[in-house]
Design a protein that fits this description.
mainly alpha; two-stranded antiparallel sheet; 4 helices; about 5% strand; elongated; disordered N terminus; Sperm-associated microtubule inner protein 5 domain-containing protein; SPMIP5_dom; SPMIP5
């Protein structure tokens, strides 16, 4: 039977090659022989490759049809109950707060090729698989965020401490004398960015205030 099929296939190929004027698979890659020899060799290779592909598909279908089913690890009732529980918790029409924010250290879905922080500016992705690179990069990015958060907390704390110290110092300083109670001859001009210059005249030391206005 196989011999008859082979003979018929060869006869069909010969008939096609004698009447074919169109495309011949892989003929452009063969040189040095006649059109008939090239076409015969190319069509034979193409026919054999197609037949092998069909045989492989048929063998795979046979294996899938004859292989026994795997034993189930749980009953159908358990699977349905798990689905019902998940539906009752995550149904969009259920009332309540649903936390949908993902953790920062959770790796991306397989096949995702989007932005990964710290991936191209560090050496965390060299010599490791993709999931290890994403894990290291996200961990480093989380450490940087935690460090920045701690610095902000310290800055806020020291700012509040400085403000409290300033308030205490302002409250502890004595109040300046009222200008209306000081005689006119003892009044001094207001000081703004002044420089005190020391002079000694006739053995009497006095301070002269020079305004920078």
């Amino acid at each position: 039977m196989l011999a008859i099929c082979s003979i018929r296939s060869c006869e069909l190929l010969t008939f096609i090659l004698l009447t074919l004027l169109g495309y011949v698979p892989q003929r452009f890659y063969r040189i040095g022989t006649t059109y008939g020899d090239d076409s015969m060799a190319c069509m034979t290779l193409f026919h054999n490759a197609t037949q092998r592909s069909r045989d492989a598909q048929n063998g795979l279908r046979y294996i899938a049809a004859t292989t026994p089913k795997l034993p189930s690890i749980c009953s159908n009732e358990d699977v349905l109950q798990a689905l019902y529980d998940y539906n009752s918790k995550h149904h969009p029409y259920m009332l309540g707060t649903v936390i949908t924010k993902r953790s920062l250290l959770e790796p991306p879905i397989p096949g995702w090729t989007g932005f990964v922080p710290r991936a191209r500016v560090t050496e965390l992705g060299y010599g490791v698989p993709y999931h290890e690179m994403t894990k290291n990069c996200y961990q480093d990015f989380k450490n940087l965020r935690d460090q920045a958060s701690k610095l902000d907390q310290l800055r806020t704390k020291w700012s509040s401490e400085f403000q409290r110290f300033r308030t205490v110092m302002e409250n502890s300083l004595p109040a300046p004398p009222l200008l209306s109670l000081v005689p006119m001859r003892h009044r001094q001009p207001p000081l703004t960015a002044t420089t005190a210059v020391f002079h000694g005249t006739s053995g009497i030391k006095q301070w002269t205030f020079v305004s920078c206005r």
